[in-house]
Fold this sequence. Notes:
Shape: globular
Radius of gyration: 20 Å
Order of helices and strands: HHEHEHEHEHEEHEHEHHEHEEH
Number of domains: 2
CATH architecture of the largest domain: 3-Layer(aba) Sandwich
CATH class of the largest domain: Alpha Beta
Distance between the termini: 53 Å
Helix content: 40-55%
Strand content: 15-25%
Number of strands: 11
Structural class: alpha/beta
Largest sheet: 11 strands, mixed
Amino acid sequence: MSKQVTNKSEDRPHSKYDRLIKAAKAIPPASTLVVHPCDESSLRGVVEAAEEGLIKPTLVGPAAKIREAASKHGIDIGGYEVIDAPHSEAAAAKAVEMIHEAKGEMLMKGSLHTDELMRSVTAKTGLRTERRISHVFVMDVPAYAETVFVTDAAINIFPDLDCKRDIIQNAIDLFIQAGFGTQPRVAILSAVETVTAKIPSTIEAAALCKMADRGQISGGLLDGPLAFDNAIDMEAARIKGIKSDVAGRAQILVVPDLEAGNMLAKNLAYFAKADSAGIVLGARVPIVLTSRSDSLRARLASCAVSTLYADARRRRTAVAA
């Protein structure tokens, strides 16, 4: 790693998350249904986020097991409502039911598998909307000036063109409504920056840019295909002769498929020491996805960005009424 990049990391370690959490503290906490929080990491993350004023949690799951885990690890959950459900799948179903009853503005994953939670979310009686459900990693990379979104690295395995349209629109909406800025710069990634029939993702990238030109994707500034280097590095873009308002300073990175996105996000986390907040979009409410390996700051940031997004939806509903 160059001395320049190292100095950047030391000068502003994860400061972007600090600003994000500060912004979320300035608004009312979102009522959050926490699904099956039955281990130390999920319970501690909930309590820390609640104490920071980011969420107002209700714990949904086996009541005895939740209280036993809290007692074992010295976590005080006495101030939070616990809704009893016999097991993880029942907890997910109950939380979805409570969303329909307007008893929560967000869902938050506890110690159950992601697919267990998402089965209830995507069921016929779940929380689907007309928009495809997708995932965004909101990443604080110390060596990069921008907060960067990586999508979709967790839900859609091999998205087709229509699915990618929704993935991009979900990410743009989050960027704008959670207060990151206006008209985000969206780089549609592939292995190369030229369109070639030999790499189908380059053709889809070009089509998505034309869809944006025709108003089928709105609110963002799109360019693609772009390779990762010329999407995030101005010098790499200059060397390749790419003239673009997006190249070299992208804010949203759209990956070709889940495998590429998952590897990119984990490379940023482990090689570049980035923190990654996770949120699922396209459902009736935002869904906070956390991992046992997440740092406390990443857990707080996941709650913060979801709370900011929930607040924007709350305000739009109030205006419409």
